[in-house]
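for the recovery benchmark. tokens below, seq after
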């Protein structure tokens, strides 16, 4: 979230429009409450069948050398990022939305309307596609030692009847088996991921893989997967419970799943170009 604005702003008034999201105008006709800074107010800017949820901010808050440093300060960014997310989630309860990233700015209403015009078809298609759906995040951690120990025990059990009775020869044979565990672990992990995706896609309409830092330590394990699912908002289909059920089967084997949501559909919205409006 500590990032520069998406659109360079050169506003003669010293103010810009901070965009939270785009929704359907017939589903969102009014809004109130504080904007991203807490002392500004939310506004609606309708355009054809769309409406942008915005607030007015000072350009200097998000643009320029001083703002660059401020956007790296969690104490400053944190409350504003929380307000941003709260507004987006609030609008999501009334309409399908295309959420904007934190610190998306337009220098004027005319620039915003030009962007809405240029991307109208893509935005409308997205709003239709995500209508009645929400994003759920699933992260996975591999506890490598636990997984390898289980695989090794299973491999030794399989070959127990063929191992030499001689201690020296038996030791060498066990070392040979241990040497294969790394490759076996890779195959097992790939199979687990495929099975989990297949099981969860029963409850979702789309799936996205997101970046995992290679080898990153997470809660004494290694980051294994970072997925997003687009799930229909149905009371009879508890996506979180489905993940927890799968997690109950995998955790003893060395893979732990963590589910969070529902979230706005950030992972399922197209990257719409903003640079042409700078």
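predicted aa per position
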């Amino acid at each position: 979230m500590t990032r520069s604005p998406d659109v360079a702003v050169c506003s003669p008034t010293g103010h810009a429009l901070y965009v939270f999201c785009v929704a359907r105008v017939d589903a969102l006709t009014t809004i109130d409450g504080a904007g991203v800074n807490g002392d500004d107010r939310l506004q609606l800017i309708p355009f054809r069948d769309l409406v942008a949820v915005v607030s007015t901010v000072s350009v200097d808050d998000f643009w320029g050398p001083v703002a660059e440093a401020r956007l790296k300060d969690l104490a400053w960014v944190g409350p504003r990022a929380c307000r941003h997310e709260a507004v987006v989630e609030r609008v999501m309860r009334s309409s399908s939305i295309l959420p904007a990233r934190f610190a998306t700015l337009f220098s004027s209403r005319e620039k915003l309307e030009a962007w809405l015009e240029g991307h109208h078809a893509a935005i409308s298609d997205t709003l239709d596609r995500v209508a009645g759906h929400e994003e759920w995040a699933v992260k996975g951690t591999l506890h490598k030692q636990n997984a390898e120990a289980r695989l090794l025990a299973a491999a030794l059990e399989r070959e127990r009847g063929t191992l030499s009775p001689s201690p020296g020869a038996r030791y060498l044979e066990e070392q040979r088996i241990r040497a294969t565990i790394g490759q076996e672990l890779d195959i097992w992990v790939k199979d687990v991921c495929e099975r989990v995706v297949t099981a969860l896609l029963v409850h979702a309409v789309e799936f996205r893989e997101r970046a995992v830092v290679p080898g990153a330590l997470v809660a004494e394990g290694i980051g294994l997967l970072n997925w997003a699912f687009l799930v229909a908002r149905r009371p009879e289909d508890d996506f979180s419970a489905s993940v927890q059920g799968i997690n109950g089967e995998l955790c003893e084997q060395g893979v732990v799943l963590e589910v969070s949501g529902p979230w706005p559909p950030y992972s399922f919205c197209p990257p719409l170009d903003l640079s042409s409006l700078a």
